[in-house]
Design brief:
By secondary structure, this protein is α+β, with helices and mostly antiparallel strands. It is built from four helices and 13 strands. The protein is globular, with a radius of gyration of 19 Å. Residues 26-189 form the Putative restriction endonuclease domain. Keywords: Endonuclease, Hydrolase, Nuclease.
Length: 199
């Protein structure tokens, strides 16, 4: 008697592991039946993370209100989450992305178009947003990287600037109750506490 065989149905998360490209993402993402998630890929491997909580959402909305007018005046464009290509087998989706100029109907953004990714760091994304992504962005030659770290009643904002050695160094930093101020990549001036839900 022949053994019964069961064919496993195609599962993109399993069958495409290590092979993900932008083209495959366009075809198979988002995954049907899965809850809303952020999809990013490193080395062809998908990283899924749930949407962050209300503190991050609030801070993102506040940053748009604080930064968009000045970015626009400087000729740049501030967007909420966009897919930024990091190579053939990868992309990131920062919480906000400052582009050198406005785009139209573009799903995938090239690194050369990006002036500054902006990440709202949370415990679940700490290592990726504070260590992995800045290293990737520096390797791509993206001039700035801004991250916001929210704690219970405190916020730290840090702007990194790419040096001649291809590494980021701190360009400006402030915590709640201090003034975060910089002229680059466009004029910014605000108290990080303004990003708190309790402000």
């Amino acid at each position: 008697m022949a053994a019964l065989t069961h064919e496993n149905p195609f599962d993109p998360l399993i069958d495409l592991d290590g092979l993900w490209t932008v083209e495959l993402a366009e075809r198979y993402l988002p995954i049907e039946g899965m809850p809303p998630a952020r999809y990013e890929a490193v080395g062809g491997r998908i990283r899924m993370s749930p949407r962050e909580g209300s503190a991050n959402s609030w801070a993102t909305a506040e940053l748009v209100g604080l930064l968009r007018p000045a970015a626009r005046s400087a000729g740049h464009a501030l967007y909420t989450a966009l897919n930024v290509r990091t190579g053939l087998y990868g992309w990131i989706e920062p919480d906000l992305v400052l582009l050198r100029e406005r785009v139209r109907q573009q799903t995938w953004i090239e690194a050369e178009q990006v002036l500054c990714p902006i990440e709202i760091i949370s415990p679940s994304s700490y290592h990726r947003d504070r260590i992995d992504k800045p290293a990737v962005c520096a390797g791509l030659g993206i001039p700035y990287y801004l991250h916001v770290e929210i704690r219970a009643d405190d916020v730290e904002v840090e702007l990194l600037r790419l040096g001649d050695d291809g590494r980021y160094t701190t360009h400006a930093r402030a915590r709640s109750g201090e003034l975060f101020q910089t002229a680059e990549p466009f004029p910014m001036s605000f108290d990080p506490a303004e990003l708190l839900e309790s402000y």
